[in-house]
Design a protein that fits this description.
The complex is a heterodimer. Chain A is built from 14 helices and 4 strands. By secondary structure, chain A is α+β, with helices and mostly antiparallel strands. Chain B is mostly helical. Chain B folds into 3 domains: 116 residues, no CATH class; 89 residues, no CATH class; 45 residues. The chains are: A alpha+beta, B mainly alpha. Bound molecules: protoporphyrin IX containing FE.
Chain lengths: 297, 296
């Protein structure tokens, strides 16, 4: 640990001002590449459409359900949007899996250390450590590239998509499906699809976005990194000290350091990120509130 | 939105009704014989069509109903040209005597219909509901005019008629209605997609029979044909789909209930953990002053 913090202090200052060109630049740490960010964009769009066209069916008794269905132009039209978004889902899921397979093949044997999204022994220690910290019984655990809750979110989404996709396609093609299995599995499919959707919505809306991206102290009020791809080095160092130390140790830090030009565009983009977040946030909050309301109504 | 979509269909329905009158003329002779000295509709409307009687109510099986009959609605209905007395047999114009007002209801609601719609009546008579009405059992079952609004007979394929079919069965089959509304057909219907399957698409309007009856449209042996009307290619497997299943009850379907309960449990565990974890994280964040230190 001690040697790690020494290495950290040896790093150059992260903000460099170049008087000549009058362009301010900043050394940033690139957390998400273009592929990650496009992935997130596709998940974001398709998931929102799926939730908004699906939930009114699940909560058909509510006034908002009818309102949304009228907005989409009827149940059949909403079903068409639901299916288009489902195809997008299949597409991004396949792309992600291909990339993962390539990664696994490349890593050959050194799976645990190379694939940062898989659970490992440290995650269990971290869970215990975090609860100890919550109750003031120890320091906050230090994290590598992904925390255990981020791994959980990712892996549950990957697995959840398989479950929800399979049951969705069963209901989409009931005649084809029943060439294989008896029709009562379609009743099961609806129960699974419907509840898995609620589970996924809860995990994504509440725990990933409200919590991970906005509410937790490291991110408050908005963690833009999934949009911008990079964040100031010292901030990253504080948030993921182990990954930083690992990269320093392995000499791979340069691979992820970029020089970001800070121009008016940077600020304009910030406005865009805030706007997207605000709109998505308000709609997500609305849907969550609607559902909580109808469950307790 | 729905209203806009209905407009063209309404027009079609009206045209169909207009053409139907030709048919009415053919059917009237039966009534025409006793209609020679019977009062005309004009006479009945003199009192029953006047806005003055809107407030006047009579007791029909415990329900207060107005004796006002809207002439415009009546005349655009499928029965628009029918004499009032074809259903209200023996009624004369002027204050009605006790003989007229005593036993008119059963005649008007089913007895009269039988004269002109013999084929439908026979079908109905053989049905589960018909059995209840004509058999020993004193069960309360719907007769013709419970499903077809007395003075506003709509063509059964009209959108208006379809849109209210679930309410016809609702009072007496609350459980079946609820499970139907929990299935995809029911959800879609409830939210305005009335082309999807409604009760009478599967059960029929007049030949409703218990599922165990081999003649029933919902008997195992006939389901391929019943579902096949809208799902061409339905096979033995397909029709094992359960239209009326309550996931919350193990006796309805143990399989579906098991999955339902498993998910309820899973959702409860995940959401509880999530809330506790986030809540504590935020609490500790405040306590340690982490919110002040951040650079975003
Ligand atoms: C990935 C592929 C998916 C496919 C093929 C799919 C397909 C379907 C189909 C066919 C239905 C039946 C209703 C209709 O025809 O519109 C349905 C309902 C529904 N879907 Fe999906 N879906 C998928 C993903 C999702 C996701 C990711 C969510 C939300 C997180 C979701 C939420 C819902 C909900 C809430 C319902 C209504 C369930 C109910 O009636 O209780 N779906 N889906």
């Amino acid at each position: 640990m001690a040697s790690t913090s020494e290495t950290i202090t040896e790093q150059p200052t992260t903000e460099v001002v170049r008087p000549k060109k009058q362009v301010r630049t900043r050394i940033e740490y690139r957390r998400f590449n273009v592929f990650h960010r496009w992935m997130h964009f596709l998940v974001f769009c398709s998931f929102t459409v799926l939730v908004f066209t699906g939930m009114p069916l699940k909560y058909k008794d509510t006034a908002w359900a009818q309102w949304f269905m009228d907005l989409f132009g009827g149940v059949t039209a909403a079903g068409v949007y639901h299916r288009i978004a489902a195809i997008v889902t299949v597409f991004y899921w396949t792309a992600e899996m291909l990339v993962m397979v390539i990664m696994v093949l490349k890593a050959r044997g050194k799976l645990k250390s190379r694939i940062p999204l898989f659970f490992n022994g440290k995650d269990l220690q971290d869970v215990i450590g975090m609860f100890a910290w919550f109750f003031g019984r120890g320091p906050k655990p230090q994290f590598d590239r992904y925390t255990y809750w981020e791994k959980f979110d990712y892996l549950s989404l990957v697995a959840g998509t398989v479950i929800i996709g399979m049951t969705g396609f069963m209901m989409w093609f009931p005649l084809e499906f029943t060439k294989v299995l008896p029709g009562y599995w379609l009743n099961v499919a609806l129960v699974i699809h419907s509840n898995e959707a609620l589970l996924a919505m809860g995990v994504i809306f509440i725990f990933v976005h409200f919590f991970s991206a906005h509410l937790k102290p490291e991110s408050f009020p908005l963690d833009k990194v999934i949009f911008t791809g990079s964040l100031p080095v010292d901030h990253y160092k504080a948030e993921r000290p182990l990954e930083y130390a690992r990269r320093v140790r392995e000499g791979t830090l340069d691979e992820v350091l970029i020089e970001r030009r800070i121009t008016w565009k940077t600020y304009a983009a910030d406005v865009v990120w805030w706007t997207i977040t605000l709109i998505a946030g308000v709609s997500a909050l609305m849907m969550t509130a609607f559902i909580i309301w109808s469950v307790f109504d | 939105m729905t209203r806009l979509r209905l407009m063209p269909l309404l027009l079609v329905a009206l045209c169909a009704a207009a053409f139907g009158f030709a048919g009415t003329a053919a059917a009237t002779p039966a009534t025409a014989t006793n209609a020679l000295n019977a009062p005309t509709n004009d006479e009945c409307f003199k009192c029953h069509g006047s806005a003055d009687v809107k407030g006047e109510t009579i007791d029909v099986k415990g329900v207060q109903k107005t004796i006002y009959v809207d002439r415009a609605i009546y005349e655009q209905s499928r029965h628009g040209k029918l004499a009032c007395t074809s259903c209200h047999l023996g009624f004369t114009s002027g204050p009605h005597d006790a003989e007229q007002t005593q036993n008119w209801l059963a005649t008007a609601k089913i007895g009269a219909c039988r004269e002109c719609h013999a084929d439908v009546f026979e079908m109905y008579r053989g049905s589960f509901h018909g059995n209840l009405v004509f058999g020993e059992s004193s069960g309360e079952a719907p007769v013709c005019a419970d499903c077809h609004e007395a003075h506003n007979i709509m063509p059964p394929e009209s959108q208006e008629f379809r849109a209210q079919i679930d309410t016809l069965c609702a009072n007496c089959h609350a459980d079946a209605l609820e499970t139907y509304l929990d299935s995809y057909h029911g959800k879609a219907f409830y939210l305005g997609e009335i082309q999807t399957a409604v009760c009478t698409d599967c059960h029929g309007g007049h030949r409703i029979l218990a599922p165990s009856d081999p003649n029933s449209s919902v008997n195992e042996a006939n389901l391929i044909q019943t579902c096949g009307e809208c799902h061409p290619g339905a096979n033995d497997n397909f029709v094992q789909f359960m239209v009326h299943v309550n996931p919350k009850s193990p006796s309805s379907s143990f399989l579906v209930w098991t999955f339902y309960m498993a998910y309820v449990l899973l959702i409860a565990v995940v959401f509880t953990f999530g809330f506790v974890h986030s809540g504590l994280y935020i609490y500790r964040g405040f306590k340690d002053g982490l919110y002040k230190r951040n650079h975003h």
